[in-house]
Structures are given as structure tokens and as C-alpha cells.
Amino acid sequence: MIDRSARGARRGLPWAAPFLILAALAIAAAGCASHDDTSGVDDASDIGTIEPLTPPKATVAITYSQPGDALARATVSKFFGAEVLLSRAVRAGRTTSVVRFDGGVPIWEFKSDKSLAGRLSALTGGTYAIKQVEYGTVPPHFVQVIPDEGPPEPLDRGSYYVFTVERASGSTSYQAVKVLADGSLEAYAAQPRAGSSYLLCCNIAVDFPQPVVLPEPAVGEEPPEQNPNPGDSGSAQN
Q1: How far apart are CA 214 and CA 208, in angstroms?
Q2: Residue 16's Cα: distance from chain center in Å?
Q3: What residues contact 206, with CB distance under 8 A and at least 6 apart?
Q4: Does residue 219 belong to any structural domain of this protein?
Q5: Is 207 a domain residue?
Q6: Mean pLDDT for the chain overall
Q7: β-bridge mates for residue 108, sequence order
């Protein structure tokens, strides 16, 4: 795993302990972004039917920079658009961008079932120092806060999300994610700025703020047109 925290600190970027957003399909890390070129679009298998697209999935891989640390809370917020406010080079080949997102609705949140008022040791150990969380699945010994009942809404193609991970030590890390048309995820380490703006690292895709063009559902072939005059072969008879 790339330690974005250490690399960012050397350049004055206050990245917290990192975590990765992984699609259900394999994602290859490139720089600070995660991409998946494998299509998640299913074709219709029956003629004349439309197969619904499979909801995108994501897994959060969590790391801890302090010994004995543990997960305290995780939140996912949904955004509906993005605008790049400014970009600047922090060193050769690396550029950070301030992106303002439109919206910001928490759609999923869960927390440890222990109070954080006690000592850090109350949350340590394998029970709470979980290394991986699948979106929509609350880990054992944690309780869901949002929504009140039932699983959260599925991830939506073309939408943006910010995954926030809070640790018992007080360390918090953020990941900004765009769900692409094929259901894969484009993710960047992030730090909150004013309002709904975040500083993203690094080298965000040129089309990151652009709307996603959703694929047309696969449709079976239309049956051939019937000849209205069965006796007419369509060619002149000699």
C-alpha cells in the first residue's frame, strides 16, 4: 500500500494515515489515484429484455499508524457534482487540486459500540482494529447510525462520495471517490477545506469534474419486419 501520509508530510501536506477504496473488481493503484478498467456492465441475456446494471461496490481498507489504534467511526457522504477551483504542482510530476463538491448528504455512518470517553485501550485489539470494511455492511461490534434502519442506498454511477474514517487515537483520513459509468471507482486521498471543498492528491483525472455518461442498457435485437404481402417475394418475376 502506498503510504500517502509519509510522502505528503515530506512536502508539507498534512495527509492523515491513509486508507484505500477498492472496487469489488480489481483496482490497480496509479500514483495517488485508484482506477479499474474492468467493465461492470452486464449485457441482456434474453432477447427483448433489459438487464439492470449491478450496483457498484466498494471496500475500504483501513490502516493504522499508531500501535494499538482502532476504528471509532466511519462515514460516507454523497455529492452530486464537482468543480476544480485550483491546482498547483507540489513537486515534479505531482499536482494537488482543490475541488468543491456539490451537495454533501451523509448516507451511511457507523461507530464503535463502546464509548470514546474512556481510555484508548478500551478500543484496541482485533475486535475494533478492523482492517477492511465493505460498503453497506456494518462490522461486528459496531452500530449503524445512518440510516436509522436497513442498509444504505447503493452507490450511484456518476456521483461523488467522501469516505471518512475516524480512529480512536483521533486520527482522521478522507478519500474522495467518483463512481464511473462502468461501476469502477476513481479515488484520491483528500483533506477538507472550507465548506464542501477538499484538497485532493494527486494528479486527478482531467475528466474528474465532468458528468458521467451512463451506458445504455443492453437490449435484445428487434425481430425482423414481417412482409405485409406474403405472396410478394420482393423481386420481379420473369
Answers
A1: 15
A2: 18
A3: none
A4: no
A5: no
A6: 76
A7: 76
Q: Quick one: pLDDT at residue 49?
A: 45
- Rounded to whole angstroms, how far apart are CA atoms 130 and 127? 7
For residue 225, the model assigns a pLDDT of: 54
CA 202 to the chain's CA centroid? 16
23: which 3 cell numbers? 472496487
Query: Which residues span the domain enclosing 175?
Result: 4-80+104-192
Q: Does the predicted TM-score (pTM) go above 0.70? A: yes
- For cell 510522502, the residue is 7
Output the DSSP codes for 219-236: BPPPPPPPPS-TT--SS-
Per the domain annotation, does 154 fall within a domain? yes
Q: How many domains does the chain have?
A: 1
Tell me the mean pLDDT in the region 227-232. Answer: 48
In a domain, 87, yes or no: no
How is residue 2 written as a grid cell?
A: 502506498
Contact 200, 33 (CB under 8 A): no
Q: How far is CA 80 from the centre of its chain?
A: 13
Exposure string of 162-199, with b = 16+ CB inside 10 Å and e = fewer, is: bbbbbbbbebbbbbbbbbbebbbbbbbbbbeeeebbbb
Best mean pLDDT range from 30-39, 125-134, 190-199: 190-199
The set of residues, in sequence order, having a beta carbon less than 8 Å from that of 25 and lying 6+ positions away, is 36, 38, 40, 183, 184
Q: Other C-beta atoms within 10 Å of 91: how many? A: 10
**pLDDT band (50, 70, 90) for residue 53:** confident
pLDDT band at 174 (very low <50, low <70, confident <90, very high): very high
